[in-house]
């Protein structure tokens, strides 16, 4: 019956084979655009060959489909639909240039089909079991439900499609990993072959070597093969930090399993020194101990195995040390690699690793003595997992904090830089700020006096200033800390002192100082005196004239908002702004400031004053497209609510912008749409033909809905 259905899908009349296949492909919509033209140019022999291949593959599915129908998993109509869908996919894969999406869609369809088959099979078996025909747990089941072709054909077909797509798109790593994941999920024997192919085509991808070694280690339980893969991967990718770290973790895991075996045999000398640690280790690794205890009763070669394990354990430290030395020889300048080595050794909880950890720390200090990140990391390492300590362990906590502070002090003696001061200050700030994500902040509520911590932070900033290490970022932190402490006047005086010294060009510091000055004025009284206004205006005028507008946009926005209620000073600021915009080298510098000015004038004085202002701004050199669009938006919004003169102004703005930027087709499109909505058909067509003269490529105007 299946063969009849498959043949019926191919019968489209008494046409020749060539015409029949071509008609079928067009009917199914498998070839579109240029590919349809390419198919029509194929010779009849090529088309016959493609059809023969598809028909051959369809006929090979007959036994599987018969089995599905015989078992009652799919009805005749469903089988016919499966044949139709598979034929569609097969033709897509056999065309001249199959797309990657075609292969992926075919795979997804087959996965869903196989999942449906499995679900229906379980449902039928469950029903039969309920009726007492046979028990689900019995080894002897009815003949009809023994493993048959339909149980494996779907997986084999998916594997075959994966093979074809990975051969065509060999450079797609995502496809290779999907192929590998499918093989692993199905526990198929092709896994090793696929891994070899993937590594052959992508030997420089560390992730593939790690994946292959993990599969050998975890699934195949073949430590020798996993170690060989890791070593080959390191020869190919010696500069991969992930490979070195995963190799170390793998060897530590293997060593841990051997230790678990020895613990099961009663030898705990390789664990940490206290009995409590041994008991804790047994509890944490009981999943490893259970299989080894079971094996102990049945292993007749226990003595020989113990000797082998003893030999390996004696060489364990040498193996780990060899990995570490190989890693630092291959990547000598990576501080993160060595830091991760320390973290791995620290988490291992094995005596052998403690000695290696000390060695790594010594090398770190020797090689990265003048690296601020090393000192910061080393100080954080002294604290460890501080959140695990409770109130009864306050002495341990304070000891850890003292050690961390000693590390920072030593770092400042060796490396007195702005970055080192900043890292130290950040550490101290974490002690007095409430941050739930930071374990150091737990100190705030337990053991450390806030006033002492604040005093230490201020002394640190003073040391940075006296040693000449106070850069812009550190200075802003210094002033901000005074603000957070509620000392507004001290922050104001400090900002004034810093801005008149070496940091006179520090934009962020000036912005901070200006915000503090404004805040002081507003807090002083509701009505600000003329003298105070003159004082702060002269201060801001000096900095705004000295620094380029590209660096002071935020300061401009703050100052304009503050002086918007004082017309005299606001007009003076507008004159300063025009001068600053004229000096700007880029057309985009200061656009946000100019837009903010127009918005303020429009809200307070209306559209007439706004038009005068934007004409002044647009007459400056290099007005930006963004500024033109903002002005057009103001006018068009008024025009759409009935102001006809606003439409005329918007039209003039568009013409000015297009005279300056005729190549921006999006601007032409916006102009056309405005004319279409608020103008006439003639004016809209005029814009369209002007755009056509500028750009001969009509595809650029597709979005105008002409």
Automatic annotation (TrEMBL):
Which controlled-vocabulary keywords does the entry list?
Nucleus, Repeat, rRNA processing
U3 small nucleolar RNA-associated protein 6 homolog C-terminal domain sequence ranges: 403-693
GO biological process, any: maturation of SSU-rRNA from tricistronic rRNA transcript (SSU-rRNA, 5.8S rRNA, LSU-rRNA)
Q: Which InterPro entries match?
A: HAT, TPR-like_helical_dom_sf, Utp6, UTP6_C, UTP6_N
The record ties this protein, via SUPFAM superfamilies, to:
TPR-like
Gene3D superfamilies per record: Tetratricopeptide repeat domain
GO CC: one term?
A: Pwp2p-containing subcomplex of 90S preribosome
Localization recorded for this chain is: Nucleus, Nucleolus
Task: Spell out the molecular function terms from Gene Ontology.
Answer: snoRNA binding
Report the superkingdom from the record: Eukaryota
Q: Which residues form the U3 small nucleolar RNA-associated protein 6 N-terminal domain?
A: 58-140
In the record, the note on similarity to other proteins reads: Belongs to the UTP6 family.
Name of the molecule in the record: U3 small nucleolar RNA-associated protein 6
* Organism for this UniProt entry: Zingiber officinale (Ginger)
| Organism lineage | Eukaryota, Viridiplantae, Streptophyta, Embryophyta, Tracheophyta
